[in-house]
Protein: Hexosyltransferase
Amino acid sequence: MLSRRQFYLVYCVVILLFCSVLYLLANNLTSTTRSAAASRNHECPTLPPATEPPRRFEPTFLLIIIMSHGNDSSTRAVIRNSWLKLSSKGPSYVRHVFSIGTKGLSAPEMRRLYEEQEQFDDLLFLKNHVDTYENLAKKTALSLKTTVQEVEFEYVLKVDSDSFVRLGSFLKALKDVSHPSLYWGFLDGRAKPFRKGKWKEKDWMLCDRYLPYQSFLAILGLNWGAV
Structure:
């Protein structure tokens, strides 16, 4: 039978062993947790906050979108040398872009456009758009969407390449009318459907005239810019 001294000695040894086992288990658990956390951090790094992509142009008061097409460089040259020069305001006040659908264009056509872009930096390429008469409405919407991403503006003016804008007078009138929700243009509701010829529409049965549609120029204020 153990003496009291031997009993206390055995008791202390058992307690010491028990504490050692607990320490080893705790240390192992801590190491495992740290490894798992490090693994998670490695697999899922903290991403920087999202930022908006840089815009192509500096902000401007009036952005002019001119509908054009790839093989219309001569008309663009006339516009640059005519009514676009009727205002002495710089690009911080008025800026223009020629909207061009480039899908389906040949390599030589694209090369000429790139050369023109390098010289003037005023072409807006719609890479997934085919320029056809049937796609005009889609082109207008796509042009607005693209320009909103590339330049900050207060007003946007959309015109066709056969338009002539009295730019100086127009800017003065725009300043006088100035309103963030301005929609300025000519809505025509008098036209009768074509029943003969190239543009005939035999399926138009809604009424004896077309619904009101935008004719000539159209200008939108800032509050319309997210179209």
